[in-house]
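Human: Cast an eye over this sequence-structure pair and say how the chain folds.
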Amino acid sequence: MRTAGRPARVASVAPPGRVARKSTTREPVIQEPVSTQPETQPQAQPEPEATRRDAGVTESARANRGWWDRNADEYQIEHGTFLGDDRFVWCPEGLDEVEAELLGPAEELKGRDVLEIGAGAAQCSRWLAAQGARPVALDLSHRQLQHALRIGGTFPLVCADAAALPFADASFDLACSAYGALPFVADPVLVLKEVRRVLRPGGRFVFSVTHPIRWAFPDEPGPEGLSVSASYFDRTPYVEQDEEGRAVYVEHHRTLGDRVRDVVAAGFRLMDLVEPEWPSWNSAEWGGWSPLRGNLIPGTAIFVCERD
């Protein structure tokens, strides 16, 4: 499951996708080669400015590739235990594909070709492989895929943009994306059309994103996150930019109706829209996700789509 990695500095403009807290763990997930050069004190980098402004396809892709490469280690440290090495978790609520069966019964996955988009460390692909499926794990971030290599697996890892999938038409039976790609792209229909292209007739695509209603609320897990602070209908992207005004992180908001129209415009049939309720066993906070908020407002929307 891929959600963004740290809360934004400016709460008034922060989107609900910035969901991880800074880890206090000092040991890196991947050990880098030991340098023989004298150690130098790294210079502190200025914090990016959080704002709301337009950001196009190219700028969004470039910014988010860099962001995930820089923050992959921290993300896996912070959330690796929750995600596990070979679980298929759809969202911070903890909805597991074992119970949900949104891709279909587990016993029917054997021998099926499955594309995971925004795979991160490929935890979902690893679970799919254990069911006998033939997954391919794709991610924009090279560093995230290094974590997939670290954990291991026998399935292919592909570093590519979801808007330009490097596969032939009708290559897969199923596709899935747990908070991967779609919240971070400026043109979600382009991604959806690419997914449809690589699916075989009758193929299913299931993807989870931050529930659109969350954009109207501050990204805070406590009581301060329960009051509306922005317009639900404001689609202006959330952008973090450096001192030169270059985007270093971008997240895009679509209303619930926008998401449905995107699915239809790409040629899919919407089979189901799942809004997971917060389970009683889950006492964890994940950025703005928490039991307090989860019992009152939805945090995740999962779209189950099929192509003719």
Summary: The longest strand covers residues 199-210.
